[in-house]
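User: I've been going back and forth on whether these two constructs are worth ordering. Before I decide, could you fold them both?

Assistant: Sure. I'll take them in the order you sent them. The first construct and its C-alpha cells:
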Amino acid sequence: MADAYPWQEALWQQLAGRPRHAHAYLLHGPSGIGKRALGERLMARLLCQSPAGLDACGRCKACLLLAANTHPDAFVLEPEEVDKAIRVDQVRELVEFVVQTAQLGGRKVVLLEPAEAMNINASNALLKSLEEPSGDTVLLLISHQPSRLLPTIKSRCVQQACPLPSEAQSLAWLGSALPDATPEDLRELLVLAGGSPLSALRLEGQGVRSQRADVVEGVKKLLKQQVGASQLAEGWNAVPLPLLFDWFCDWTQLMLRYQLTRDETGLGLNDMRKVVQYLADKAPQHKVLAVQDWLLQQRQKVLNKANLNRVLLLEALLVQWASLPGPG
C-alpha cells in the first residue's frame, strides 16, 4: 500500500469516507508533501474489492494485481522521461482506456502526474474524457503548479488542496527517515527544501549539503576576488540549476529584507548570513532589485526547461553578483 503521512489523515478520512466519488479529482499543492502517495492510496481504495475500513484490504485479487502493477483497470500516466512533457499520443491511450469496460467488473481509475506536464494538445485531448467520463471511471490528477493548467481542465475536477505538514510534523517525519542526522541537520535540510519533507529527503540523497557548501565557498571566494566567474561556473556542474537559482533568489530577497528592516535575525541559514549582511550593507538597493529581477526571469526559463547554455548563464549571474558591492 502507498505510504500514509500523518499530516494527510484528516483529508484522507474525508476523501476515503465519501459515499459517492467524483469522476475527477485534482490533488494539488507544493512539491514534496506526499500528493502522489495520497493519489496511489486513493486509487488502491477505489479499486479494492473488500476495503478494510477506509483503506484497501491489500489481499483481494484487485489489490494483489495493483501491487504487481498488472491491474487491468488501473492506468498511470506520467512523462516518459523525467522533466519532459506528457504528449498527446499518451493522452489518447488514456482516452481509449477510459472508454473500455472495466475488466474486473468494478471501477477504472486513472492517475496522472504531474498534470501541468501536459502540453496544450494533450490537455485538449483529455478534456473530452473529463466532460463525459465513461462508466465508473475516476481520474486522479496530481499537480504541483495548478496555475499552469487550463481553466477548463480545473473546472471539470473537484479541486483538492493537499495539506502542508507543520514544521514539527516535517522534522519528526524527517528524523525517523534520517535517524543519524542531528536536529540542526534536519532543520537545514527542511529550509533547503522549502519546508517539504519528502523533497528534503530526496535532496539529502542527492548530496545537497555538500553541493551547498561548495557553492557558498565559491561565492565567498568570488567576492574576495580569489576566483573568477567563469572558473566557478564550470566548477558547479554537479549542482542542479533550479537549486542554484533558488539559492541566489533567496539570498537577494534576504538582502532586500535586511536593507528595509535591519533585522539581523532574518538573514537566512548560518552559512551565508555574514555574506548576505555584507552585501546588503555595501550594495545600492536599486542594484539588488535589478539583480533580483534578472534572477527571477532566468529562473522561470530554467523551470520552463528552456534550452540554455548553463556555463554562460552562471557566468552572467556571477559577474552581476561580484559587482553588487560598490557604486551603482
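The second construct, handled the same way:
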Amino acid sequence: MLLVSRCLSGAKCRYNGEGKPNRAVQEFLAGLCEGRDYVFICPETAGGLPIPRLPGEIAGGKAADVWAGRAKVQNPAGEDYTAAFIKGAELACQTAAKLRADAALLKEKSPSCGVRLVHDGKFDGTTIAGKGVAAYALARQNVRLFSENELAELKEYLRQKEEKTDE
C-alpha cells in the first residue's frame, strides 16, 4: 500500500485553498486502484487545520526538533500550528500501520510532507534539507518516502517489491 499526499491529485486541501496537481503523479495513479494500491492522506487537514489559513513553516529547528518539543510549526503571524501538525502526523502513521503501507509519495517542501526539503521558517521562500513533520514520523515507522520529483525511483521500488512477491 502506498500513501499519497492528497494535494498532488489536485484536491484543494492546501493552506491557500488550492491543490498542487502534478500531472505525472496523476498519470501514475491512473494505473493503480485507489483503496487497493494507494490511499490519499493530508496530515494538515487531518490534524484539524482549516482551509484556507496562513502558511506554516517549521521554526527553530527541524522535524525531529518539533517532535522533541524544541521547535514549532507556526505561521508568519506567530500562531502555533504544532499540535495540529503532530496530530496529523500521528494519524498518517496510524493509517500506514493499519494498511501496512510501506511507501509514501509526498509533496516536497511541505512542512508536513517534505521528503528532502522544507522551508526554513522565515517565510521568504528559502528551502533547507530536511523532512516535514509527518514525513519524519513515517520514516521512523520504516515507511519509504518519495517526493513527486522521485516518481522513477518509486516505480522502481514498486517493481522490485512486486518481483519479490512473485518469487
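Notes on the second construct follow. The two ends are 19 Å apart (CA to CA). The chain has one domain: 2-166.
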